[in-house]
Design a protein that fits this description.
With about 100 residues, the chain is α+β, with helices and mostly antiparallel strands. The chain is built from three helices and five strands. The structure holds iron/sulfur cluster.
């Protein structure tokens, strides 16, 4: 049921966009998964070139994912904005934003 709700939320956000107060970095330098991932796979569903959630394990950033940061920026931000436990952190040149920041 939770997965169904997350899917519904994702579909809504894909059509309406990320929350307007969610900061948009100019260039993504690094994507990090902080402690607390619940392995829901939502981020992988949104950006499979960047996120991987092996069975029963926490999310990881795929090796080589950095080559997709520019082309998948919108998807990465969408995943961070929708992570149910707000553990996806994004770094740009000199500052870090996370899905939990305002
Ligand atoms: S990082 Fe967030 S969205 Fe991705 S699997 Fe973990 S809890 Fe789900």
């Amino acid at each position: 049921m939770v997965r169904g709700l997350l899917h519904t939320r994702r579909v809504w956000l894909e059509s309406h966009g990320a929350p307007p107060n969610f900061p948009t970095p100019m260039t993504i330098q690094k994507v990090l998964i902080e402690e607390g991932c619940i392995s829901c796979s939502l981020c992988m569903d949104i950006a499979a070139d960047v996120f991987d959630v092996p069975d029963g394990e926490d999310c990881v950033i795929l090796s080589g994912a950095q080559t997709h940061f520019a082309s998948k920026k919108a998807d990465i931000l969408l995943a961070a904005a929708n992570c149910p436990v707000e553990v996806i952190a994004i770094e740009e040149d000199d500052k870090q934003i996370s899905s939990g920041s305002e």
